[in-house]
């Protein structure tokens, strides 16, 4: 099995979830099918239960004779601000650029944040637009199918230098998170 393939039992579960999310399967049809697929899956399934999937997993719990688990967001989810993701960001980003197959070409960094409130998200948007020349988009929890507001930021395509990478990483570490938002990831 290549590292990009998943076992067929996991794929079966993910296909049912995808069909449910796309509206091709009703809750009444998807829940028993996913219940059976999960039972036949020895590998487990590591997914985030987004707001759109909560009803499906609550129905599976009911079918299994269990009380549905309340899936409320952790009120302290932004306490660390994603500090683990920001640790050595400059070094990781520089290595990503220097080892990138197109490392000598113009490349862009992308990153995203999650914010508990619209006000915190809008502060992040303003910060990113004025510190680092990012193109920024904002999605509400309903649009993002998430608990939080999602802020995505892309740098212009640039031929990166070590100094430029350090400035980019520094701007992200200085973003106004204030316990209300978290850095969630980045890529080239």
What does this 3D model show about the protein?
With 188 residues, the protein is an alpha+beta fold. The chain has two domains: 8-63, no CATH class; 83-187, RraB-like (Alpha-Beta Plaits, 2-Layer Sandwich), CATH 3.30.70.970. It contains eight helices and four strands, in the order H-H-H-H-H-E-H-E-H-E-H-E. It has helices at residues 8-21, 27-39, 51-63, 83-86, 89-99, 118-130, 141-144, 162-173, and strands spanning 110-115, 135-139, 149-154, 181-187. The longest helix has 14 residues, at 8-21. It is elongated. The model has no long low-confidence stretch (mean pLDDT 91).
Key features of this structure:
four-stranded antiparallel sheet; Alpha-Beta Plaits; 188 residues; 8 helices; single chain; alpha+beta; elongated
Looking at how many chains there are and whether they match, the oligomeric state comes to single chain
Main sheet characteristics: 4 strands, antiparallel
Name the shape in a single word: elongated
DSSP E strands, number: 4
Sketch the topology as an H/E string, one letter per element.
Answer: HHHHHEHEHEHE
Tally of helical runs: 8
Low-confidence stretches: none
CATH superfamily of the largest domain: RraB-like
Q: What is the helix content?
A: 40-55%
Span between N and C termini? Answer: 27 Å
The level-1 CATH class of the largest domain: Alpha Beta
Strand content: 5-15%
User: Roughly what is the average pLDDT, rounded to an integer?
Assistant: 91
Provide the CATH topology of the largest domain. Alpha-Beta Plaits
Structurally, the number of domains stands at: 2
Structural class: alpha+beta
> What is the CATH architecture descriptor of the largest domain?
2-Layer Sandwich
Computed over alpha carbons, the radius of gyration is: 20 Å
- The strands making up the biggest β-sheet line up spatially as 2-3-1-4
């Amino acid at each position: 099995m290549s590292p990009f393939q998943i076992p067929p039992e996991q794929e079966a579960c993910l296909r049912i979830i995808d069909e449910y999310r796309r509206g091709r399967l009703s809750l009444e049809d998807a829940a028993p099918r996913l219940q059976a697929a999960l039972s036949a899956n020895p590998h487990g399934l590591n997914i985030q239960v987004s707001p759109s999937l909560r009803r499906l997993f609550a129905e599976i719990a009911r079918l299994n004779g269990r009380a549905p688990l309340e899936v409320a967001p952790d009120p302290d989810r932004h306490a660390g601000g994603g500090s683990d993701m920001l640790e050595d960001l400059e070094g990781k980003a520089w290595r990503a650029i220097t080892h990138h197959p197109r490392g000598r070409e113009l490349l862009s960094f992308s990153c995203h944040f999650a914010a508990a409130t619209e006000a915190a998200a809008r502060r992040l948007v303003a910060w990113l637009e004025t510190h680092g020349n990012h193109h920024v988009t904002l999605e509400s929890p309903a649009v993002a199918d998430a608990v939080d507001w999602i802020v995505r930021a892309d740098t212009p395509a640039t031929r990166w230098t070590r100094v430029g990478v350090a400035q980019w990483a520094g701007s992200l570490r200085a973003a106004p998170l204030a316990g209300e938002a978290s850095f969630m990831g980045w890529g080239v």
